[in-house]
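dude i think i finally got it to work??
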Amino acid sequence: MEIRVGTSGWNYRHWRGVFYPRGLSPRHWLKYYAEYFDTVEVNATFYGTLRPQTLARWVAETPEDFTFAVKAHRYLTHVKKLRGVEEALERFYANIAPLHPKLGPVLFQLPPSLGYHPEVLESFLAILPRDFPVALEIRHASFHQEDFLQRLRRHGVALCLSDTAGRYPSLYPALTADWTYIRLHGSRRLYRSCYTSEELAWWAEKIRDFGLKRVYVYFDNDSLGWAPENALRLKALLGLPTRPLPEEAQAELARRPLD
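look at this
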């Protein structure tokens, strides 16, 4: 099983001291991040269109085996709500083309307001490019039905397993492909709380039990800086190569609240 663990984004100024050395220029943050992790989830593509030069620089600054997961633009999911997105979908994939040498899965995060409409989902799944794996993150309980899962299985799309501190009905433990995508936003407070040793051990056991070809895991509990630390602890529990945080970062984290 190929398991990659990282964080959701890396360009966070509030990670100074708890992950990035205080004197390190933001220009070198990605290169530093890649010394600890072999994957990252790109959130900037959800909010806007990035310059090709920027994406090409990211590829050049990371190791050969590094993988970028990319979050699809919100115009597709939150504005158009998957309807009539053929041209917009083509533009989005064209925009992320410079990442192709290291492009991994593409994540489509649906808004909480979007319920399950079989015909809409089927039309959307039918036009998805098949060059790269796709994961779908749901945030509405109406998706919790077998018909939805069967449609994902037919198209080889992974259901994103998403922990949102109970805010959204999205932690729906179903596997719909030979790989899966996990987003850990915080178990008690969204985007904030530190995962306990017991919670990380539960996820490590769950991941090992999946028996899939590939698993991607991204920590999104970034606001207090716990995401990199939690990701490193999960890597260690899974037996993946890892390295400890500098003593300065460990000391600063020890002063941070857990929630």
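Strands lie at 2-7, 39-42, 67-71, 103-109, 134-137, 158-163, 179-184, 214-219.
im so relieved honestly
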